[in-house]
């Protein structure tokens, strides 16, 4: 999965599509795009194969994480959304704890949410400050 920030979309490709030996353009197997998706300036994407969910975090003006089912296509509404700190970027999972972490550019920190957090749920914790390195 990757994002197309210019078109405010998510693209999912077969893992083996394309490559240096391929003479054909890799065609996405699915695309999530349109005003109902809530996808904007995508800063980070992640796939959760256990729960069959696609995660994307929007940076800039959208400030939200949107989650889709694995088979979401087109102008589909997100399965859920979570409002996140401004300038959130990367997504990481801790499956054993059933949480996700988001990196935040300013202030430099990361925040941890329940994996299934939604809307205005607060982070479980955050790590930031000069002593964190």
Describe this entry's structure for a reader.
By secondary structure, the chain is mostly beta strands. Helix content is 0%, strand content 44%. The chain is built from no helices and 11 strands. The strands form 3 sheets. The chain has a 4-stranded antiparallel beta sheet, with no helix packed on it. It is globular and about 50 Å long. The two termini are 31 Å apart.
First and last CA, distance: 31 Å
Average per-residue pLDDT, rounded, comes to: 92
What strand order characterises the main sheet?
4-5-6-7
Tally of alpha and pi helices: 0
| Whole-angstrom Rg | 16 Å
Largest sheet: 4 strands, antiparallel
How many DSSP-defined strands? 11
| Order of secondary-structure elements | EEEEEEEEEEE
Shape: globular
| SS-based class | mainly beta
* Proportion of strand residues: 35-45%
Q: State the low-pLDDT regions, or none.
A: none
Summed up:
With 133 residues, this protein is mostly beta strands. It is 0% helix and 44% strand. The chain has strands spanning 2-4, 9-12, 30-33, 41-48, 53-59, 64-69, 80-83, 88-94, 99-104, 109-114, 125-128.
Keywords:
mainly beta; 11 strands; 4-stranded antiparallel sheet; single chain; 0% helix; 133 residues
Give the SSE map.
Elements: E1 2-4, E2 9-12, E3 30-33, E4 41-48, E5 53-59, E6 64-69, E7 80-83, E8 88-94, E9 99-104, E10 109-114, E11 125-128
Antiparallel strand pairs: 1-2, 2-3, 4-5, 5-6, 6-7, 8-9, 9-10, 10-11
């Amino acid at each position: 999965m990757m994002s197309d920030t210019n078109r405010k979309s998510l693209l999912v490709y077969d893992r083996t599509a394309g490559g240096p030996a391929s003479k054909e353009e890799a065609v996405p197997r699915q695309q999530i795009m349109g005003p109902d998706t809530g996808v904007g300036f995508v800063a980070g994407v992640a796939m959760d194969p256990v729960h069959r969910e696609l995660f994307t975090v929007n940076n800039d003006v959208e400030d939200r994480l949107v989650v889709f089912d694995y088979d979401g296509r087109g102008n589909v509404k997100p399965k859920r959304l979570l409002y996140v700190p401004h300038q959130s970027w990367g997504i990481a999972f801790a499956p054993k704890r059933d949480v996700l972490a988001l990196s935040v550019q300013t202030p430099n920190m990361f925040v941890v949410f329940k994996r299934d957090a939604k809307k205005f749920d607060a982070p479980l914790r955050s790590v930031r400050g000069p002593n964190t390195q």
